[in-house]
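Below is a filled-in request sheet from our internal design queue. Each sheet records the structural input a requester submitted and the sequence that came back. We keep these sheets so that new team members can see what a complete request looks like end to end.

REQUESTER: design group, bay 2
PRIORITY: normal
MODE: inverse folding
CHAIN LENGTH: 585
BACKBONE (tokenized):
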């Protein structure tokens, strides 16, 4: 499997071929009928190999049949059977080949002169090879080869920033083939000194590409100091020629790094997500990919300076089952899932720097409606002005958002949607709960917390000296005159200086304490004046008048809570001399 420039690392290809071979064997075992004994129809390929230098037959040339295979849309060649060596007369026969089409490779191992590898018919690349057909029970003959003396290209690979040799590194001779594809003709690994030699090359023109798997260099680079194939300088070699000093000083690469998580409320790190940097500007050919680790982290290195789109693939593959599944929706940075509806954010790389924080939050392709497994918990000290906190609770099936509501005796409190709530006067004596709504594209679910009761105030009864707990509102004990239900009678006297007209207001000095919860509750004291009733009056000078004072709602509640008690009150009003009075219930 090749990248854009056709460069191939042998270990990666070997691993893929091995994987496909295992899968193919597994399929054959599953599909082969039990007890099958039929022998597949086969044929043969034969021919003669000679030397272009001497025209004589060549002995010991390895001849290999290659069959084209395909895996997940990628085509590659693998050995269809064992290779055969030519005899003294240059003849070879490839036997027991299943009916089909093959590419025939001719390779000289340890020969002198050093012949170039070729493919039938006289092609230096697999892509340029002519297919050979095999029919059942027949031999396909005259598949001959004339071996050309191989050329060589050599040079040294160093670091542009330090000048030191770069090793390990790979140098590859490349050629452009039909369709604009780039084919790898032959590669060589360098020595510790950075020196390399590519041998067995057919005569022709080549672009030389370089890969350094470690060290953080731009991948790939080309002779002469080019970052893309189109800008590479061609190297021409004749049959048997040696071209030296094809050197390269590798430029350091930059990187893009980030973290990939689920878009659920837990922001779980996602492992095995493939992240690719797709170049849209700059000089390089650095479309590189990396997979996230267990922490959801990735770093795409060896990038040329330029501008990139960063793609996050939602397909997750299992190394144990070899199965892949599109679990998450693919996206481009920053959260763009469709180019029709949004424009992705481009990421700039300035080598050798690292552009960090290119994160992604991945949405599930097929989400399930959230389910609550642990209700939210309501905590906090109770009392007027106290702050209560509502936890998230525990959820499964990846909710993507949470919303909060607060309830007083089961009724939603308007305007309260945060995860915290400060109690108010209206909450005294009430049961407070919170609810959490978890949602995702599949639906929503609601869970309600435990209830906490807000305590009422407690006051000291001046008649008994004991605390008296009452319902919502304030409680006072009153003594001034006799009361009847919601009103009380009062006697007023007007002085001789002139007529009196105005309003009498009765105010109670209220002290109280708020008790918290626990074995040793904290006590908060308060004191303020409360108007509990009023009456208008009009009295002639020097006269007395009995008036009836009506209690307001606070006065009625306070009076109803009083049992044979008394409280010192203050009387104020227009045309009224302030004084202290006692009101009796």
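RETURNED SEQUENCE:
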């Amino acid at each position: 499997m090749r990248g854009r420039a056709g460069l191939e690392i042998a270990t990666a290809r070997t691993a893929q071929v091995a994987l496909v071979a295992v899968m193919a064997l597994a399929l054959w075992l599953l599909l082969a009928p039990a007890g099958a004994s039929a022998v597949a129809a086969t044929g043969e390929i034969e021919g003669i190999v000679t030397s272009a230098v001497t025209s004589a037959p060549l002995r010991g040339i390895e001849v290999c049949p290659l069959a084209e295979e395909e895996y997940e849309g990628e085509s590659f060649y693998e050995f269809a059977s064992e290779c055969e060596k030519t005899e003294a007369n240059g003849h070879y026969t490839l036997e027991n080949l299943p009916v089909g089409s093959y590419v025939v490779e001719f390779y000289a191992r340890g020969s002198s002169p050093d012949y170039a590898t070729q493919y039938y018919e006289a092609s230096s690349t697999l892509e340029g090879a002519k297919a050979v057909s095999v029919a059942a029970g027949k031999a396909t003959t005259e598949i001959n080869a004339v071996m050309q003396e191989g050329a060589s290209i050599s040079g040294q690979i160093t670091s542009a920033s330090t000048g030191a040799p770069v090793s390990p590194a790979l140098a590859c001779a490349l050629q452009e083939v039909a369709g604009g594809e780039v084919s790898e003709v032959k590669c060589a690994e360098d020595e510790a000194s950075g020196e390399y030699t590519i041998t067995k090359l057919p005569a022709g023109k080549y672009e030389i590409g370089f890969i350094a798997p470690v060290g953080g260099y731009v991948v790939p680079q080309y002779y002469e100091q080019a970052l893309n194939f189109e800008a590479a300088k061609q190297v021409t070699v004749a049959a048997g020629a040696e071209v030296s000093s094809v050197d390269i000083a590798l430029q350091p690469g930059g990187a893009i790094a980030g973290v990939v998580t689920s878009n659920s409320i837990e922001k779980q790190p996602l492992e095995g997500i493939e992240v690719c940097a797709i170049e849209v500007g700059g000089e390089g050919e650095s479309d590189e990919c990396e997979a996230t680790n267990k922490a959801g982290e990735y770093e795409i290195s060896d990038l040329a300076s330029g501008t990139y789109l960063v793609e996050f693939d939602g397909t997750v593959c299992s190394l144990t089952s070899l199965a892949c599944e599109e679990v998450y929706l693919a996206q481009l940075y920053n959260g763009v899932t469709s180019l029709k509806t949004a424009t992705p954010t481009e990421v700039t790389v300035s080598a050798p720097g690292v552009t960090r924080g290119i994160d992604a939050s991945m949405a599930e392709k097929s989400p399930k409606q959230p389910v609550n497994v642990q209700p939210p918990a309501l905590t906090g000290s109770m009392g007027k002005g106290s702050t209560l906190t509502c936890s998230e609770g525990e959820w499964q099936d990846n909710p993507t958002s949470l919303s909060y509501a607060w309830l007083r005796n089961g009724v939603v409190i308007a305007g309260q949607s945060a995860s915290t709530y400060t109690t108010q006067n209206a909450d005294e004596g009430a049961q407070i709960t919170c609810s959490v709504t978890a949602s995702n594209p599949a639906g929503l679910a609601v869970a309600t917390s435990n209830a906490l009761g807000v305590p009422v105030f407690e006051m000291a009864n001046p008649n008994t000296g004991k605390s008296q707990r009452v319902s919502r509102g304030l409680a006072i004990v009153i003594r001034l005159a006799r009361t009847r239900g919601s009103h009380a009678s009062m006697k007023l006297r007007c002085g001789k200086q002139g007529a009196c007209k105005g309003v009498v207001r009765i105010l109670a000095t209220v002290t109280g304490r708020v008790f918290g919860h626990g074995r040793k509750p904290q006590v908060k004291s308060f004191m303020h004046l409360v108007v509990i009733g009023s009456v208008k009056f009009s009295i002639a000078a020097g006269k007395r008048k009995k008036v009836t004072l009506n209690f307001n709602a606070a006065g009625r509640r306070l009076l109803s809570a009083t049992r044979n008690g008394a409280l010192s009150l203050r009387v104020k009003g227009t045309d009224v001399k302030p004084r202290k009075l006692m009101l009796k219930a």
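SHEET NOTES:
- The radius of gyration is 46 Å.
- Residues 228 and 516 are 74 Å apart (CA to CA).
FILED BY: M.R.
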